[in-house]
Structures are given as structure tokens and as C-alpha cells.
Design a protein that fits this description.
alpha/beta; six-stranded mixed beta sheet; five-stranded mixed beta sheet; 7 helices; 17% helix; elongated; binds adenosine monophosphate; binds magnesium ion
């Protein structure tokens, strides 16, 4: 048996960061930037107002109070998107809206609330009283205060979240070079499997793995390519596997245990390079890994166990980091939290146990409760879980009240 870490290291040693593609920025969310981004403009491009109010010279307000306002002549108005042609002097002000470029001569903006505008019904307004002294530069956003022209704004290798996309749009970028998404082929194997939407004959079960796996692929940034179901026959598995040759990764589920019909590993063996491992973890012990070859291509193949929970869990631990590596991501591991376990969890055979658990936060502590029966076919306890509580290999049981590490599959906002 090999450890979880050894298995992961091997899987990762077979996958490479993928090549680049260019596309519209909005399609790039979750992908990794493949170019340094410099700004060709200042953001904001001009000094502008951070408030609705009056643009003026701060000096004009010296000595102003509510009972003795500084009264200025209003010589115009400027809204966002416009440029004022007028010049503000010591006796004058221009009514200004948030985002409007600061008129010439003005150095500050006083907000409406600090003027007597509400008491002056005439429109357009001709005079305004300023009710307090203001500091020079008040409510003025300076040109280039966010980004200056020529600046390196985002480095190659940055993961693109909504805020990065916003920054890129503020530079006027319409397209980007990013690392492309991996296409992940998904093949279910087993004579017992039936596709959803069809009647269920006696003795059969629905193929659920293709769905949980495809959804996991999508969630972590890959593009799933569903190859359907292969019966437990070598020729059928081989033919389906060949359809994965134009993908970046092949995931199969089932057929990797010791049973008579567990043929995936035999097919893999025929392709040349195969490692067949028993990983010291529970659930999800058997795992096959190899390269499928053909048409001059070599595609990594991860043979996941068939049990629905095992297949999802081995995906989390091995396929997810592989996909993230191909996407060019730096952080391949999921966050863990320390949580107080509220039920006893046994470890009967020295493997690392991943117990499906519901984690909640109370005050500044996390608590984890096992989410139901832990058989590797019981997918509903996975559905009730947001984390996987870990019992290390060398611990026979964790007792109620002890602290464990929980690998978080989701955070509570989801
Ligand atoms: P295997 O690894 O092929 O022996 O499968 C182990 C268990 O997982 C068996 O009970 C299978 O019926 C079940 N199983 C295999 N593939 C799937 C699938 N695609 N969807 C749901 N259950 C599956
Ligand atoms: Mg099977």
C-alpha cells in the first residue's frame, strides 16, 4: 500500500501545465493568466470627484461655519462623463457629480450635505453657501491613484476571480491569454449500469458516477467529456478508452478491484504504462493509474474505484489537484480546519479514514458531526457533508470531543 501523498505525487508527475488560449475576458473566470498585464492608461484617467457636491478652491472656505457660510457664485455644473470648460476661481464653485472630472482651478469638492443647497429652491442654482472649512484635496480622486500608466497590474500566473476581471476591464482589456481548460473524459464501467432517464431493469443500477465526476470536473475548471458506459468486456472498454485520446485526462470509474470483471486495469496494462496501487485510505482503496497511448498521443488515465463515495473522494484527492496543475494553479490543496468531533470515529485497519462530516462554526470554534452511515456506496451521507474528517493512519479511533483536521469540500456560504 502507498500513502495518499505518494499516490498524489505520482499522479502529479504525469500531468503538465497546458498551453494557452486567447479569449474574451468574461470567459476566463477561474483560469490562470498566461501573460503579464501592463496598463496603457491611468485609472482613473483624470482627477475626479468622489462625491456629489461643489468643486471649489479649499481656500475659499477659510472661516466658513454654519452660521457664517462662505458664499460662492455657482458658474456651472458638470456630470460624470462630461468635461467642464469653466475655470473655478476664489469666489466661484461648480456643481459636480460623482465621477465627473474636476474642473480647472478647483482643488477640492464639498459634499451637498455641507452646503446650504437644500435651503435654496431656485434652479439652476446661482449661489451656494459652504457651511464649513474644508481641507485641500477633499473628495478628490487623483488620476492614476488606482493604477498608473505603464504599471505591471497583474502577473502571469494569477488566477482570475471576478475582481481581477474587473481590474482588467478597467484597463480596457477585451481579450486575454490564459492557460486553457483541460478536457477530462469520463467513462463509467460495469454491466450493471443503466443511464438516467431509462427504466431500471431488475439487477441494474443507475450510473451516478459519471454525473458526480462530471460535476466535480466542471466545478474545478475542467471541461467534462462524457464517454458513457462500457460493459465489462475488454474490447468495449478499449474502444471507449480510445475515444479519450483527444482529451487531457481520462477518468474511469469501476473495474479496478480484484473481481473477475474488473477489467479496467487489464486494459490499462495492455497500453503499456500502468501503476496499480492500493492507497492507504478509506474509502477508496484501489486506484489505477497509467497512460493511454495512440495516434501519437499519451493521455494520463486515473482509474477510480466504482463505489460512488470512493470515486468522488479519490477525485477530490487525486484528480482535482491534477486538473488544477494543468490549469496552471499554484495552490493544489483544499483548506482544512481544526474541528471538535462530536461522534467517535474508528479506524480499523490502519488506513487514513475520511469520514463524511457536517462542519459548523460556533463562536470561534468548528464542530464536526458525522453525516450518516459511512459505507462507500452511501452517497447521501456525502450529500449531507461539507467536509471530510480525517483519522490518521496510526490512530485507532478519535473520541468524541477530540480535535481533528477536516478537509473542507465546501464553505458554508455555498
Ligand atoms: P467496481 O469497482 O466496478 O467493482 O464497482 C464497485 C461498486 O460500485 C459496485 O457496487 C458497482 O455497482 C458500483 N458502481 C460502479 N460504477 C458505478 C457507477 N458509474 N455509478 C454507480 N455505481 C457504480
Ligand atoms: Mg464493476
Amino acid at each position: 500500500m502507498i500513502s495518499v501523498e505518494q499516490a498524489l505525487e505520482k499522479v502529479l508527475s504525469y500531468v503538465e501545465v497546458l498551453g494557452r488560449e486567447e479569449k474574451p475576458i468574461l470567459e476566463c473566470q477561474g483560469q490562470v493568466l498566461d501573460e503579464d498585464i501592463y496598463s496603457s492608461i491611468n485609472v482613473p484617467p483624470l482627477d475626479n470627484s468622489a462625491m456629489d457636491g461643489y468643486a471649489l478652491q479649499a481656500e475659499s472656505t477659510i472661516g466658513a461655519t454654519e452660521s457664517s457660510p462662505a458664499v460662492l457664485e455657482v458658474i456651472g455644473e458638470v456630470s460624470a462623463g462630461a468635461i467642464s470648460e469653466q475655470v473655478v476661481g476664489p469666489e466661484t464653485a461648480i456643481r459636480i457629480m460623482t465621477g465627473a472630472p474636476l474642473p480647472k482651478g478647483a482643488d477640492s469638492v464639498v459634499q451637498f450635505e455641507d452646503t446650504d443647497e437644500a435651503l435654496r429652491p431656485q434652479r439652476p442654482i446661482s449661489q451656494i453657501g459652504i457651511l464649513k472649512e474644508i481641507a485641500k484635496g477633499l473628495n478628490v480622486r487623483l488620476a492614476g491613484e488606482d493604477i498608473s500608466q505603464g504599471q505591471l497590474v497583474l502577473e502571469k500566473g494569477t488566477s482570475l476571480r471576478p475582481q481581477e476581471l474587473g481590474v482588467l476591464a478597467s484597463l480596457g482589456k477585451a481579450k486575454l491569454a490564459v492557460i486553457r481548460r483541460p478536457v477530462v473524459a469520463i467513462l463509467a464501467t460495469g454491466d450493471e449500469l443503466v443511464e438516467v432517464g431509462k427504466p431500471l431493469p431488475q439487477g441494474k443500477i443507475y450510473n451516478s458516477n459519471s454525473f458526480s465526476l462530471a460535476a466535480q470536473v466542471t466545478r474545478y475548471g475542467g471541461i467534462p467529456k462524457i464517454l458513457g458506459i462500457a460493459r465489462d468486456r475488454e474490447d468495449e472498454i478499449e474502444a471507449k478508452v480510445r475515444q479519450a485520446l483527444d482529451s487531457d485526462l481520462l477518468l474511469t470509474s469501476g473495474g479496478v478491484s480484484m473481481g473477475q470483471y474488473d477489467l479496467v486495469k487489464d486494459v490499462l496494462a495492455k497500453q503499456g504504462e500502468i501503476s496499480f496501487w492500493t492507497v492507504r485510505m478509506k474509502p477508496g482503496k484501489p486506484l489505477a493509474f497509467g497512460l493511454i497511448k495512440g495516434d501519437g498521443k499519451r493521455v494520463p488515465h486515473l482509474g477510480l474505484p466504482g463505489n460512488p463515495v470512493s470515486s468522488m473522494l479519490t477525485f477530490e484527492l487525486f484528480a482535482r489537484p491534477a486538473i488544477l496543475k494543468m490549469l496552471g494553479k499554484k495552490n493544489l490543496s483544499k483548506p482544512t480546519v481544526s474541528a471538535v468531533i462530536e461522534s467517535r470515529v474508528k479506524n480499523t485497519d490502519g488506513r487514513r479514514v475520511f469520514a463524511r462530516a457536517m462542519v459548523r462554526r460556533e463562536g470561534d470554534r468548528y464542530f464536526a458531526r458525522v453525516s450518516g452511515p459511512q459505507g462507500s456506496g452511501i452517497l447521501t451521507s456525502m450529500a449531507r457533508a461539507n467536509g471530510l474528517a480525517i483519522v490518521p493512519e496510526d490512530v485507532a479511533a478519535v473520541e468524541e470531543g477530540e480535535t481533528v483536521q477536516v478537509l473542507m469540500m465546501d464553505w458554508s456560504e455555498e
